[in-house]
Every structure is written in C-alpha cells, then in structure tokens.
Design goal:
The structure is a single chain. This protein is of the alpha/beta class. It folds into 2 domains: 197 residues, Vaccinia Virus protein VP39 (Rossmann fold, 3-Layer(aba) Sandwich); 114 residues, Alpha-D-Glucose-1,6-Bisphosphate, Chain A, domain 4. The protein is 27% helix and 28% strand. The chain contains 9 helices and 16 strands. The chain has a 9-stranded mixed beta sheet, sandwiched between helices. Bound molecules: S-adenosylmethionine (SAM). The site of S-adenosylmethionine (SAM) has 21 residues, from strand 4 and helix 7.
Length: 339
Amino acid sequence: MSLGQTLFASRLPWPADWPAIFGRAAPLLIEVGFGSGQFLLELAEQRPEANILGLEISLPSLRKVERKLARASFRHVRLLQATAQTVLWALCLPGSANGLAINFPDPWPKAAHHHRRLISDRFLHLAATRLPAGSHLDIATDHDDYAAWIAERLERTPYFDSRLATPFTTQEEARLGTKYEAKALAGGRLCRYFLWRRNETAAPNVFPIPQELPMPHAVVTLPLTLDQIQDGFATGSLLPRRWTAGHTSVRLNDLYRAVTHDALLFDAYVNEEPLDQRLLLVITQRRPGEFLLHLHEVGFPRPTAGVHFAIHCLAAWLTELHPEARLVHHNLLIEVPGT
Ligand SMILES: C[S@@+](CC[C@H](N)C(=O)[O-])C[C@H]1O[C@@H](n2cnc3c(N)ncnc32)[C@H](O)[C@@H]1O
C-alpha cells in the first residue's frame, strides 16, 4: 500500500480506513497540494493529537517531503499521491475529514483553463459532504483573479460561513507559512486568506463512494484477423477513438501487438469522476474470428463503471470494422456511467 511513507490513492480501498492507516482514531486534517511541506510539517508540530494527511500530485514534492518527514520522525503524518477531489470523494466517508487547508492552489490564469481550478461550486459541495459542521476550510491565494473567483463561490455556497466579518483577510499573524507564500510576499503580491467554517446546512451527498465492479469482459465475433484489426486502427481515421457520456470519457491513444500470444493492447485513458486511469484494454484472439475484450492487470487498474464503459466502447469500435461483427457475450454494466 505504501512506498516509503507515501501512499498511493490508486492502491487504497474505497473508502480508506484512516484509523488503520494512522494506527489510531483521531481527527483527520488534510492539506491539499503541500508543495515543499513547510506548512504540513509545522501543522504536524502544532497538532500532535490529529492525524495529518498531506496530498500532492507531484512526485518530486512527495519524495522531498518524505525525506523531511523521516528526519522529523512524525508518526501522525501520512503523504498521499492523489488529487483532493479523488481523496474526498473516493477515500473519505461523509463527515470523516475534520479540516481542509488549501494553500496557494494553482490559479490557472487563462480563461480557457478556468475549468481546471480546484475551487468550484462542485468542489465546495463535495467538501461540504465530507466535513462535519464546525470544521475549518482555509484557502490562501496571491492571485487577484482567483481570489475574486474563490470569494464569489464561497459567498454563494450554502454550506460554509466565514469565520471573519469579511470573506477574507490579508493579514493573518497566527498563520503557518508556505514556501509559495514567502515568494509571493517577497515579490510584493497581496495574499488573501479565506478562513471559513462548515455550517449546519445539510449537503446532499451526490458523491457516492465509487464501487469496484467485476472485471469487465466481452466477446466479439467477426471475420477478421488480428492483423486486419490492427490495420483498422492504423488506417481507420474515420472511426471514433474517443467517447463521452456524462462525466465519463474514454480515449484510445495507441495500439500495441503482443509478440508471445495473439493479442492487441490498446493504451487508453478512462476519465471519470472522481478518478482518471490510464490502462491497457486487450483484444485476445481465442480462436479464428472470436475475440475476447478485457482489461490488462498492468498498473493495477480499478474495474469501475468507466472501465466497463471503455470495454463497451472498444466492442463498439470493433463491431464498426465489419458488417458481420457481433457482440455475443459480455458482463458489462451497460448503463452509461456519469449520466
Ligand atoms: C502553487 S503550488 C503551492 C504549493 C504549496 N501549497 C505552497 O504554498 O508552497 C500548488 C501545489 O498543488 C499541487 N496540486 C495541484 N492540483 C492539485 C490537486 N487537485 N490535488 C492536490 N494537489 C494539487 C501542485 O502539484 C502544487 O504542488
């Protein structure tokens, strides 16, 4: 489950068993995007009674902070490679996180990239389902436009109230610092600190913990060889290689040929809330004209509804190759996920 002190969200069960991971039951405080780890380590120092969870997507940051943690020998801190969205949605039961600190989230300044901003109405709703009333949500930014964006969303969410008389402050003496903040202040940029609290308003839990389904498979018959199917991918530029349904999308990136057995391996993206997976979908020839479509185990893929949809899309792609092609058997959850 862990490599050094770093946990990988892709390997943890949904939801995670936090008391087992920390070796004790204690309030769970989460820092999103800990970067250099300065805030996380100071928080660990200040809150020995809490379980402290640091989230990062950057491996170099994880490695660096892992070394710092080993030197400090804290027993109540864990690092997790994951996005905040995945952790809150898939790993945390409703009400199971007791504080969320988001320090200088990436501002994504271009309008075309605003949809990538972490703070959104949906994210605040998700956070509201995982944080019990009274828990703190602290956000800091030095980016003027993102600050206005965050203020707008916080002010319209029914689930959080400011702990101040204003949406944010620019002076927060008691605050633990971050590396990014020090740079911003040295560069003369104004930092805004949003200090909010989860209120008593019930937040409908529209973010169910994802389920792992049976390993998906399908059998397609068609009068083609693997070589011809391979050619179909190489030359079939008119056939779709990307499918979208609701919040789920599947893309076939490339195709590889196994050399020891009769199989084609499709490198594919499966993007579904709350997780994105890059995995291998396989077409194995069982006998001439009969093909088994399944998921390769490399990379420990999780057989989610999105992955069932991916096998369904691959079957659809294969059956487009020949008018006599038939889907003869499958165990797929065919309801299109995310709709
Ligand atoms: C601008 S840096 C700030 C780092 C640190 N908090 C600081 O103030 O010095 C943003 C950090 O958030 C991480 N990050 C970006 N999106 C994330 C997400 N969805 N979940 C967790 N971390 C994320 C990035 O890898 C990066 O290290």
